[in-house]
User: What shape does this take?
Amino acid sequence: MSEHGCELRFRALFYGLLRIRRKGRKTMARVLIIGCGGVATVGIVKCTQHPEVFEEICIASRTLSKCDALKERLQPTTKTKITTCKIDAGNLEEVVALMKSYKPDMLIHMGMPYHNLVLMEACLRCKVHYLDTAAYEPEDVNEPEFRKYYDNRCKEKGFYAYFDYPFQWAYRKKFEEAGIVGVLGCGFDPGVTQAYVAYAKKHEFDTIDTLDILDCNGGDHGYKFATNFNPEINLREVSSPGAYWEDHKWHRVEPMSIHRTYDFDGVGVKDMYLLHHEEIESLGLNYPEIKRIRFFMTFGQSYLDHMRCLEDVGMLSPKAINYNGVEIVPIQFLKALLPDPATLGPRTHGRTNIGCIFTGKKDGKEKKYYIYNVSDHQEAYKETGAQAISYTTGVPAMCGAMMVLTGKWNTPGVHNVEEFNPDPFIDALNKYGLPTRESYDPVLVD
Amino acid sequence: MSEHGCELRFRALFYGLLRIRRKGRKTMARVLIIGCGGVATVGIVKCTQHPEVFEEICIASRTLSKCDALKERLQPTTKTKITTCKIDAGNLEEVVALMKSYKPDMLIHMGMPYHNLVLMEACLRCKVHYLDTAAYEPEDVNEPEFRKYYDNRCKEKGFYAYFDYPFQWAYRKKFEEAGIVGVLGCGFDPGVTQAYVAYAKKHEFDTIDTLDILDCNGGDHGYKFATNFNPEINLREVSSPGAYWEDHKWHRVEPMSIHRTYDFDGVGVKDMYLLHHEEIESLGLNYPEIKRIRFFMTFGQSYLDHMRCLEDVGMLSPKAINYNGVEIVPIQFLKALLPDPATLGPRTHGRTNIGCIFTGKKDGKEKKYYIYNVSDHQEAYKETGAQAISYTTGVPAMCGAMMVLTGKWNTPGVHNVEEFNPDPFIDALNKYGLPTRESYDPVLVD
Assistant: This one.
């Protein structure tokens, strides 16, 4: 951040004065956005479509040139005042310094989840609202202290993801006392899926008995094999044990051992597999009436075959080998061979379909209900320059921030999305790119 | 070869004298063996089991230490006098110098087929019998002059392998005039399979109508993926167009597009695929009566899946990419990750089954006939230190050399195996490790 030291000190004065001018207005806000990848790009594009709320945004990421390029592209299209800043989001002092100078009303974190805790701490110190899109996990999952915690948690709770919520829930009381709102996991899943549960409970059911969350990506990028993001994260997904919630406890299953097919509206028939997913953790606590919560994600057979074959020959290994005197990490070398995920956007066709299928009771009668969204990769790309996987995460982040900034979600503390009023959020989603579809007679998953 | 210069000159004198002493004997011979890999190891072990024919052998390869280690292991077990020599088999002058000093009666070439032409030329100059186990192909198949020849031959003849016989057949008249015997392709396939054809024609049929050559490797090395030899050669096999011979011409088929299953004696049911194979070229010429000749090789679905997935991501590419400033060839890096083929021997279990299925007529009646061998990987390994894939190639090479050295195959010129009397050869195979099995009611391949 050294090249921005002077600029920051100047900004501190400038924005301090500006802030005095803005105090009287209610819904116009200054927002610090962390990240400039696919999801952040969508979130930022969407913010700039609503300058009546997002009056000023600062795009801050490790790579200033990406922030500047996005600013250059968007500034001519919007009244939102865009600034940029280089930041190491893992460096607390650096983030606090930026926040003290920029004085945002809210921080939207659309970077890596490794930085959630640093950014929450910075928000607490500066009394700034906070929103992220994925649960905290450490950058180094082999760090001994984390490992000890992790092994213990796996044993005690029975699920095997590296992410979980207690690290962030630990900030509940502090945020409450500071009078700031922290929104956890406000992408699509986690995020919209939890709003769907709150919505279903509020409008459709007296009691919910079962919930299946279905995440389908029916996109085709035309490559025989490519990954939408870091292949290391992809590998974790398919090689970690799955888990579901039933009778108030976790049930562990072997990786990819529960397979179903489902005919998705707008996509067609796809293979899907039971995975652990983070929103089950909070939904299980917030809705103890739900007897069973499962999460399914689609994976094509070809994708799985490639992952398995690459793993078999050691190409997914994160451990360096000595090759002709050079240390080479196989999975890093593989990344260099694969198409850059950033280039998939323009060539990805097809749709995503993500939603929740419920069974339960209303007025004493058994009832089924399915609420979901269908998004088109090419439409998302044309609008934002990123395909639907980023789109379905970035739009809810903007809508969630809008809820906080307009006072619709204003309970101080740290909350998962299902704890807020779902109605204005789903209204916003309907209006701003992720319209809701419903079915009262869905095919249930076995 | 510099370190052997002096020794060679001394040898020239020594063996010259010895040769005079040996002139009166008929079947005791001195043999120069090129190669010291798996196949050569088997061939050499087998030669040393017959010191009554192989009185002296010189093991010559690029890596002298391998030759010396084999000599050290075998010398205490045999009366055959073993010497060793470092040689570049692609260097004509070097080979001629060695032959002039060692004065072999025969050269057995069990090294790379790139060197066939150099070694035949050396044999011609020194009037030494010649035998190899695979048809010539150039080391650099992209060399422009070869490429021109190759493209033209593909078009004219209709098969797409890099190997073919005309380069070696060009020596026919020269070998004949020199009074030496050249035996081409005397492994199992090519080699024994052609002897099976000659045998079937001699003893079982008046006319042969169809021939299917079936090559089954039912071995399991316990790895999820490993290759028995260079993965680049494996790749060529599965990615080259196939071809079969019917009505006196080649019929090209897409790679791996003709798939059958067959229940192999001693192995079980296996998937097999139609490939081009070199013995079809000579059999088609030598047996114009045969209406259709096909070759099938077994490949497990898992093996094919791995090859395909690795190809899809670019891991089989022979072209270097720049990775963090270092030039890395993906297929070479893959080789470094995979188990060393040399380590597969002790852990490979199961059997091979290779043979020929005929239909035709005898005494005016329709007839079927199947002649084949079943070899066990572990038995081969225990006897020779190499598994059955090497064993089934090395044993026929020894038996073929024995035929030449004992005068049973003595027609001067360059010949494929089917041109010789099959009876003593098959007798030798039966006695020395590759016993023949027969069936008069085989299941035919569609």
Observations:
- The longest strand of chain B covers residues 351-362.
